[in-house]
Amino acid sequence: MFTKHTALIADDSAQVQRIVARILKQDLNFGHVLIAANGKQALDFFETQHVDWIISDWEMPTMGGHEFVETLRKHPRGREVPFILMTGHADKDTLRTAMASGVNDFIAKPFSPSTLIQKIRRIATAIERRAAARIAPRGSYQAQIAFPGGAKYPAELVDISDSGCLLRTVPLQQGGTVCDPAKLTLKLDTKTVAVNSTTIRIALDGAADKSVVPTILVAFQFQVDSDTQSAIKLFIAQQQAQESGQMDDSAGDFELIS
After folding, report:
1. Per-residue pLDDT averaged across 149-166, rounded?
2. What is the DSSP secondary structure assignment for residue 9, as one 8-state letter?
3. Where do the Response regulatory domain residues begin and end (predicted)?
4. Does residue 247 have a pLDDT over 70?
5. Which positions ≥6 away from 96 have C-beta within 8 Å?
6. Range of the domain at 33
7. Looking at the 3D structure of the chain, how many domains does it have?
8. What is the pLDDT of residues 23-45, one digit of tens each?
9. Does 172 lie in the same domain as 76?
10. What is the pTM of this model?
11. Which residues touch 15 (CB under 8 Å, ≥6 apart)?
């Protein structure tokens, strides 16, 4: 699965570098492994090399993991790169900050090889599943995000699957962060559905127009009943049918030239 992938390790410990590189090469068969001693060196690698995965320490000299992941997520190519955090300070505040900055998952030091292997395989499976199932809707579909405590935000649907969605909204200054429950109101064609969900990722919106109000991207995992899931699946099927119909129509616009 990973033979054509390049992983970037960022850690100021030579011992950790060697251990993680050995796991990636010997246990997961990564094709290439790059090693940096801090976030700045890692960003230099990212600018000049193709990188598929990042495994980074949180506390490093020159540039730590927090600044590294925040800078990475602003890069046009860095929004979707899987980022696994290694930290010896797995307290709740650190993990919330890390996840809100765009970290996909974390490992508390010290860790066993099997823990890192399981994390990487789980993320890879989730990426494949999302890529196969999610669709970007045709047109603009409005939504609302409501967090416990009363914070509410208007949003726009970016993509959706039967298990979750990605919404574009304003920064969550009134409350709401990664791991928080949220109630979503999604306006899907003629039907409006209310969906209980969990906030799983917050990232900067790299496609946003910097001249207008800044926006962010927030990913949610659904917890839905059968009726709501049926409505979401119907919406996805209708969107796919429209896409297929447009492709068929455009194919008819071509003339055969002999």
Report:
1. 94
2. E
3. 6-124
4. no
5. 177, 178, 179
6. 6-133
7. 2
8. 999 999 999 999 999 999 999 99
9. no
10. 0.62
11. none
